[in-house]
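tl;dr need the bound structure. longer version: we got a ligand (zinc ion) that a collaborator sent over and nobodys looked at where it sits. i said id run it. heres the input, straight from their email, havent touched it
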Amino acid sequence: MFDNQGLKCKLGITTFPLKRVPVFVFVHRTTYLTLYMLFISTPVGTSIILGLLIVSWWWIFFRKKKRRTIRFPDAWASILTNKVAFYRQLSAPDRIRFEENVLQFLDDVQITGVSIEVDDTDRLLVAASAVIPLFGFPGWRYRNLNEVLLYEGTFNQEYETQKGEDINTLGMVGEGSMNRMMILSKPALHQGFEDNQSKHNVGIHEFVHLLDKADGMIDGVPQMFLEQPYLIPWMKMMQKEIEAIKDGASDIPFYGSTNEAEFLSVVSEYFFQNPKQMEIKHPELYALFEKAFRYQSSS
Ligand SMILES: [Zn+2]
């Protein structure tokens, strides 16, 4: 950039008014430029310049990664401590990993309120719902989700909240035009974290559907994370437990008997919300879920 006073470099660090450039500076710059041109005309010079370029690019990339690793705000840690029992019972290093996963999720997925305000607690509860089922899989991320919509209440299959039929849905994984989206009722999301002795958490429920979907089908058989030897025992156990629910001989919520996909999501809610009780009442099923989610509760 030139002005009538002289020459300025782009960063504004060095200023030499043109009229007053000393002779030794002129000689120094000319010599430097000549040596530089000679240097890059040799194979060694070219290699060094290329090497420096590669290092520069790596450095830029590295600094970008570092910049994203922001410190988890204390206020957010307090919200998680108050609201999320799963987070509370983690060891200190696991809490840090949980927080990193939350930041990664919030970086990957947009959370939007539909005609409602969305605050930090709402975002953190959505993120916690996502992080909990994947906590046994370090490095895994939801590649099949772009956005979570929060509704002010229940809705129906046509995404209607006021008028229409069957406005009783609490959460949904989008299909068709809503692919890569999830809808959650904000009050139901909060309710799921209010009572950690319950077997209900709509956030966890919907994110488990998303994991189930990762192999292409929402069918109750999460092939992406259930190892091959456990697939047959898994299917047999599912049929047996679904029959028990239908017969009224199980404490698993009745909605779990709707089909295999709902069974997986409903039992996952139970597994993460109230593992102690599930281990006592359903030891075999509990052991299979521990293997599937690669997670052992310390409670
Ligand atoms: Zn469901």
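gonna send this back to them w/ a short note. The radius of gyration is 28 Å.
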